[in-house]
């Protein structure tokens, strides 16, 4: 019970300080009275008794303080006192406090915004049970690229054979389907998942039920769906009776059985899945999948997520997978020869194992940049606090003279700066929320709106709080130590005219660092902007100007192949007749978009390198005139014509890169190849070669690509994007086209309506470059502003400190120009030193990011010189204003000052 | 008899604990008792008593209660807690061992 006695004693002295003090008073008083009474009864006169008692007893106040100290609650009381005092000080100079809080809010807000982005992309675990056990699987075929999509059959085998290391394994694939209820159709991101999907993640349904592990195994057996919470709210207005209702998926009936919990957005970092279907329904809901979808090892669609057994590490799991891969490649040499499996912790495999390192690097870069901005803000604030600590030297000296211990003064000043920082942090959190909502609302040009940021979680609050606290200590420590070190007698005897000298050295150093830091930020912003410019001027191989894109899918309203083809034919005829239209065509795939087809190819006259699987090649299903609309030149042979129909020989057009890689130095016309995973796999004869285009990424090497005619391969993609090249304004073309579609098929929804230049602004297209350039530019600008404020602050402070000196100089005959030169010279030295230091550090930093740059070198002289020039001009302008003020000093006024 | 001996730091705690082991006492009473029992050899500096009492209370060895003193004034009475009693036994044993050891050394030096 001793701890209880101790605690109650402590609590009493903490919360009943007054009564504890009163008790102490009366306790001591009792003692004194008793002692006096004893002395009196021993025969001493009362007055003498009192005096001698007091003498023996010693200093009563000192004793009381000693007793209070034993209670160990002084720290807390002192802290409360410090906070109250600090608040009073801050209120006394509201402008000063406001500037500091605002500066901090900008610095911390920028950090919060960037961190919220990193948090939602990389740090936040999936809202699953024990997310640390979740892993992502990938494989390689021979020396081929790292692939992340497995066939259903491979997944089944790996799951059962690696069950020693993995308690379960799920597969999922993202798709895009037409959903209609009561005749109203729209598009939605759907996820086809194995039946154990929700069980493995360990989630509870918000309403209804999830799939059973047995569901989704057999083709077409379970026409059911689970809705995401968000989709249920937006599409079905949160209708509680939706469970058990029937909806149409691409015109196939399907029953809603459950609703997923609100915090679950699917397994992808950015796109939010809206509906979940059992994987077995893929062939039923979507046309174009072969019947052996569940057993064909060539059809690789499923991303695989495994849950490790408790206590099993990645190494052990990898070892188990190595054995499975060995067995599979021996068992199925046709499809799995040379297969190797690899496993990654889910958190470090976003968005997928092959690109996660880039994402992590980019995240680290931007966190570093934004940290630099905060440092610049800190330097400004430290400067301001230093100025003020000079002003408060007297106050500190008086307090020290009255007996305040040095650490007590440091604590007081630190309390002030931490309090400021916390206020700044709160304001920063607010700004950061606004900024992060801004980032979240960036249109990613995906078919349905998706967001990069899903609200705030505790990590962001902890991060912001920690940043604010660190900032408070960081900016407060130097001024606090300096202020507390002041010699009492010197300060108290001083007239109050500060002798600037030594104090300015720290401040000048801080400003030099600021100029350097802001130059570094600006250089990186410049490099990213140049990079964006280079990317935008890349010759993509097609002409995206004056083209509008509208996507549609007749299968959503139940059209079969014949109906669909007829629809597209009359649509194109009617659209071509619209005023201003130069050409119109349809395609299954728009460059840099989320749509696209690919398949493994068997290519005649081409020997697969040993140990490698069949080549995986992207392709598009297009109508005649496609090459005209896109202005892609046909280099050899012919383009597609209306004669390329069912019944005619199967034909294809290949890209230059295709011909060059598989038939180098040969005539590609007349060569043959076949896809392997279609319902039927006809042999195509090459009839033409098209010029290379950037289809999947705006940068990097151009991969092989081929085209198939819509007339022969409608089944591969009923979803088509109508592309219209017109001299008329895009909004008119879009409106007229919508009218045409409405008159042809009133219920058919059109979606993804953009000009083609807009639609290139996707994650695969320009968006990442634009985001990087935009973020870096915003940070650079922030850094610039902070550095300018810093330069201005230190120069104008030095002018105000030297007013007296300038007055004397002028009284002794110095010319105004000389005064201007003197002040300007001081600024020039600071700026020049900062620029030199900045160029060196920027060069070092830029080399680290050189692999994120396109078309511009990390040492790009144009960027460096332009940025240096701009910064120098603006910084010198910031010196000019105080310098002018110095020039106008009236000697009489200056000398009479004080 | 010479000057009253100054109390070594730490021994004051032991004396206080031993004194209030018999019955609860107030500060003045403790000082008087120590002086009386030690036949004026030990004189507690009045001021030093209270920080020591508060420290002992903070450590949980003793507890304080307000009660009526013999002259009908309210006074703060200190008594041993159970933990304090154990602590006293231990410290007293330590002290006895130490003093007898010192006594042995001094005796040996004399002979």
List keywords for this structure.
heterodimer, A: 898 residues, alpha+beta, 4 domains, 6-stranded mixed beta barrel, 29 helices, 22 strands, 52% helix, 16% strand, globular, B: 111 residues, Arc Repressor Mutant, subunit A, 3-stranded antiparallel beta sheet, disordered N terminus
Give a written overview of the molecule:
- The complex is a heterodimer of chains A (about 900) and B (about 110).
- With about 900 residues, chain A is an alpha+beta fold.
- Chain A folds into 4 domains: about 1-70, no CATH class; about 150-350, no CATH class; about 355-535 and about 765-895, no CATH class; about 545-760, no CATH class.
- Chain A is about 50% helix and about 15% strand.
- Chain A is globular, with a radius of gyration of 37 Å.
- The relative contact order of chain A is 0.10.
- Chain B is of the alpha+beta class.
- Chain B has one domain: Orthogonal Bundle (Arc Repressor Mutant, subunit A).
- Helices cover about 55% and strands about 15% of the residues of chain B.
- Chain B has helices spanning about 10-20, 25-35, 45-60, 80-110; strands at about 25, 60-70, 75-80.
Quick description:
The complex is a heterodimer of chains A (898) and B (111). With 898 residues, chain A is of the alpha+beta class. Chain B has 111 residues and is an alpha+beta fold.
- Sheet having the most strands of chain B: 3 strands, antiparallel
Structural class of chain A: alpha+beta
Question: What is the overall pLDDT average of chain B?
Answer: 81
Largest sheet of chain A: 6 strands, mixed, barrel
Number of domains of chain A: 4
Using a beta-carbon cutoff below 8 angstroms, give the protein chain pair with the largest interface and the number of residues from each chain: A-B, 29 and 25 residues
Question: Looking at the chains present, what oligomeric state does this protein adopt?
Answer: heterodimer
- Rg of chain B (CA only): 16 Å
Rg from alpha-carbon coordinates of chain A: 37 Å
* Percent range of helical residues of chain A: 40-55%
Name the overall outline of chain B: globular
Q: How many strands of chain A? A: 22
Strand order of the largest sheet of chain B: 1-3-2
* Unreliable segments of 5+ consecutive residues of chain B: 1-6
N-to-C series of helices and strands of chain B: HEHHEEH
The geometry of chain A reads as globular
């Amino acid at each position: 019970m001793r701890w209880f006695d101790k605690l109650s004693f402590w609590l009493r002295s903490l919360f009943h300080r007054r009564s504890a003090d009163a008790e102490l008073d009366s306790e001591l008083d009792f003692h004194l009275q008793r002692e006096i009474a004893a002395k009196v009864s021993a025969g001493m006169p009362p007055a003498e008794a009192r005096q001698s008692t007091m003498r023996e007893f010693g200093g009563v106040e000192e004793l009381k303080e000693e007793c209070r100290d034993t209670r160990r609650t002084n720290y807390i009381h002192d802290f409360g006192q410090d906070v109250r005092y600090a608040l009073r000080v801050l209120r006394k100079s509201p402008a000063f406090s406001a500037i500091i809080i605002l500066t901090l809010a900008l610095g911390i807000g920028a950090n919060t915004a960037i961190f919220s982005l990193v948090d939602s992309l990389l740090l936040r675990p999936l809202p699953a049970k024990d997310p640390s056990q979740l892993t992502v699987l990938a494989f390689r075929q021979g020396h081929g690229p790292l692939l992340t999509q497995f066939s259903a059959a491979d997944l089944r085998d790996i799951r059962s054979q690696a069950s020693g290391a993995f308690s379960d394994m799920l597969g999922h694939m993202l798709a895009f389907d037409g959903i209609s209820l009561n005749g109203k159709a729209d598009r939605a991101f759907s996820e086809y998942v194995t039946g154990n999907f929700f069980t493995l993640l360990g989630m509870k349904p918000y309403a209804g039920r999830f799939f059973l592990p047995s569901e989704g195994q057999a083709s077409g057996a379970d026409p059911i769906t689970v809705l995401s919470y968000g989709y249920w709210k937006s599409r079905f207005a949160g209708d509680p009776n939706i469970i058990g209702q029937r909806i149409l998926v691409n015109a196939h009936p399907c029953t809603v059985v459950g609703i997923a919990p609100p915090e679950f957005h699917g397994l992808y970092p950015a796109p939010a899945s809206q509906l979940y279907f059992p994987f077995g329904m893929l062939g039923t809901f979507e046309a174009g999948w072969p019947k052996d979808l569940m057993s064909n090892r060539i059809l690789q669609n499923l991303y695989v997520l495994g849950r490790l057994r408790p206590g099993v590490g990645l190494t052990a799991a990898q070892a188990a997978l190595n054995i499975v891969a060995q067995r599979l490649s021996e068992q199925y040499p046709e499809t799995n020869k040379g297969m190797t499996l690899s496993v990654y912790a889910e958190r470090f495999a976003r968005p997928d194992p092959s690109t996660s390192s880039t994402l992590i690097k980019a995240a680290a870069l931007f966190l570093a940049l934004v940290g630099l901005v905060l440092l610049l803000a800190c330097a400004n604030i430290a400067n301001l606090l230093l100025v003020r600590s000079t002003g408060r030297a007297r106050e500190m000296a008086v307090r020290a003279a009255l007996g305040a211990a040095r650490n007590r003064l440091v604590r007081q000043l630190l309390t002030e700066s931490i309090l400021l920082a916390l206020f700044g942090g709160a304001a920063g959190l607010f700004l950061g929320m606004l900024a992060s909502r801004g980032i979240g609302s960036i249109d990613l040009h995906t078919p349905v709106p998706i967001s990069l940021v899903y609200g705030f979680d505790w990590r962001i609050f902890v991060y912001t709080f920690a940043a604010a606290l660190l900032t408070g200590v960081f900016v407060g420590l130097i001024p606090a130590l300096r202020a507390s070190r002041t010699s009492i007698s010197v300060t108290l005897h001083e007239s109050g005219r500060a002798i600037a000298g030594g104090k300015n050295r720290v401040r000048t150093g801080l400003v030099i660092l600021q100029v350097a830091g802001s130059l570094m930020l600006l250089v990186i912003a410049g490099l990213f902007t140049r990079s964006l410019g280079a990317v935008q001027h890349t010759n993509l191989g097609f002409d995206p100007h004056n083209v509008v894109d509208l996507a549609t899918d007749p299968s959503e309203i139940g059209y079969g192949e014949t109906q669909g083809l007829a629809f597209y034919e009359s649509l194109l005829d009617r659209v071509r007749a619209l005023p201003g239209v130069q050409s119109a065509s349809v395609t299954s795939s728009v460059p840099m978009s989320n749509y696209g087809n690919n398949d493994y190819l068997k290519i005649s006259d081409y020997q697969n390198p040993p140990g490698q699987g069949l080549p995986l090649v992207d392709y598009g299903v297009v109508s005649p005139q496609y090459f005209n609309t896109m202005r892609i030149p046909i280099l050899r042979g012919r383009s597609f014509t209306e004669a390329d129909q069912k019944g005619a020989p199967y034909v294809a057009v290949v890209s230059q890169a295709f011909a060059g890689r598989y038939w180098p130095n040969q005539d590609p016309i007349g060569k043959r190849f076949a896809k392997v995973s279609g319902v039927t796999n006809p042999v195509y004869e090459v009839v033409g070669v098209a010029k290379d285009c950037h289809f999947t990424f705006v940068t990097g090497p151009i991969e092989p690509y081929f085209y198939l005619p819509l007339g022969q391969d409608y089944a591969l993609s009923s979803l088509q994007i109508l592309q219209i090249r017109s001299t008329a304004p895009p909004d008119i073309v879009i409106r007229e086209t919508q009218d045409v579609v409405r008159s042809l098929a009133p219920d058919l929804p059109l979606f993804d309506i953009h000009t083609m230049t807009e639609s290139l602004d996707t994650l695969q297209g320009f968006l990442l470059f634009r985001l990087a350039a935009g973020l870096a530019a915003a940070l650079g600008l922030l850094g610039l502003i902070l550095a300018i404020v810093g330069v201005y602050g230190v120069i104008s402070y030095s002018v105000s400190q030297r007013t007296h000196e300038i007055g004397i100089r002028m009284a002794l005959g110095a010319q105004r120009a000389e005064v201007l030169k003197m002040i300007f010279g001081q600024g020039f030295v600071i700026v020049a030193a900062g620029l030199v230091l900045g160029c060196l550090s920027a060069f070092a930093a830029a080399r680290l990011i050189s692999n994120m740059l396109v078309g511009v070198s990390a040492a790009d002289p144009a960027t460096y010189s332009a940025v240096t020039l701009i910064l120098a001009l603006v910084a010198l302008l910031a010196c000019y204003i105080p310098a002018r003020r110095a020039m106008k000093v009236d000697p009489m006024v200056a000398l009479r000052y004080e | 008899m010479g000057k009253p001996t100054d109390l070594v730091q730490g021994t004051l705690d032991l004396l206080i604990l031993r004194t209030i082991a018999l019955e609860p006492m107030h500060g003045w009473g403790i000082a008087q008792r120590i002086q009386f029992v030690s036949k004026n050899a030990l004189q507690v500096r009045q001021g030093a008593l209270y920080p020591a009492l508060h420290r002992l209370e903070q450590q949980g060895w003793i507890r304080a209660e307000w009660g009526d003193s013999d002259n009908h004034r309210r006074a703060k009475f200190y008594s041993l807690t159970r933990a304090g009693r154990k602590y006293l036994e231990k410290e007293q044993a330590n002290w006895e061992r130490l003093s007898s050891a010192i006594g042995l050394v001094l005796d040996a030096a004399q002979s």
